[in-house]
C-alpha cells in the first residue's frame, strides 16, 4: 500500500504550515519529543535491567515493571504526537528516506512486542516464569528499542 497520499496531505496540512512557519513552536515540540524519548528509554532500561537482576534487585520485579509501564505509556503517547507534528515539517523528505521507514517498522515492532508479548507475559507472577524467559524478554526489548533509537538518530544523517 502506497502512503504517498498521506505524506502529501501531511505536508500541506495546517500542522505543517505551523511547524514550518514558527521555529519556536517546532523547538518546543522537539523538546517534548526528546524528553519523552529519554523517559521511554529510561523506562525500558529500568524495567529490563530489573528483569535481568542488575538494577533495583531489592524491589519486586512486578512492582518495577508496573511502575515503568505506566510512564512508558505516557512517553509513547507524547512521542507519537510530537513525532507527527515534527514529521509534518518535512513529510515529503521523510517519505523518501529509507531510515525513516526502518524506524517506523522497528517502532511498530516495539509497540507490538510491548503490548502483545511483554505486557501480557509479565502480568503473571514473575516467580512462575522461567528466569531465562525473563532474561530473553529483557534482551529482546532492549534490542528492539535500541534499534528504534538508532534508526531514528540515523534519519538525520541520511
What would your notes on this structure say?
- The chain is mostly helical.
- 81% of the residues lie in helices and 0% in strands.
- The chain has seven helices and no strands.
- It has helices at 4-11, 14-21, 23-51, 61-89, 91-95, 98-121, 131-155.
- α2 (14-21) crosses α4 (61-89).
Mass-distribution shape: elongated
Strand content: under 5%
Helix content: over 70%
Low-confidence stretches: none
List keywords for this structure.
0% strand; 81% helix
Summary of the model, kept short:
With 158 residues, this protein is mainly alpha-helical. The chain has 7 helices and no strands.
Task: Describe how the helices and strands are arranged.
Layout (H helix, E strand, L loop, with lengths): L3 H8 L2 H8 L1 H29 L9 H29 L1 H5 L2 H24 L9 H25 L3
Helix pairs in contact: 2-4, 3-4, 3-7, 6-7
Amino acid at each position: 500500500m502506497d502512503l504517498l497520499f498521506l505524506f502529501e496531505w501531511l505536508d500541506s496540512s495546517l500542522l505543517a504550515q505551523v511547524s514550518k512557519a514558527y521555529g519556536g513552536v517546532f523547538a518546543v515540540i522537539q523538546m517534548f519529543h526528546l524528553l519523552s524519548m529519554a523517559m521511554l528509554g529510561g523506562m525500558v532500561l529500568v524495567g529490563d535491567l530489573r528483569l535481568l537482576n542488575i538494577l533495583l534487585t531489592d524491589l519486586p520485579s512486578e512492582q518495577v515493571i508496573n511502575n515503568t509501564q505506566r510512564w512508558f505509556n505516557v512517553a509513547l503517547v507524547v512521542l507519537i504526537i510530537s513525532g507527527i507534528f515534527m514529521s509534518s515539517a518535512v513529510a515529503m523528505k521523510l517519505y523518501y528516506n529509507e531510515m525513516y521507514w526502518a524506524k517506523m517498522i522497528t517502532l511498530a515492532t516495539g509497540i507490538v512486542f510491548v503490548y502483545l508479548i511483554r505486557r501480557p507475559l509479565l502480568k503473571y507472577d514473575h516467580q512462575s516464569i522461567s528466569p531465562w524467559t525473563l532474561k530473553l524478554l529483557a534482551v529482546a526489548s532492549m534490542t528492539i528499542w535500541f534499534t528504534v533509537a538508532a534508526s531514528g538518530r540515523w534519519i538525520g544523517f541520511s
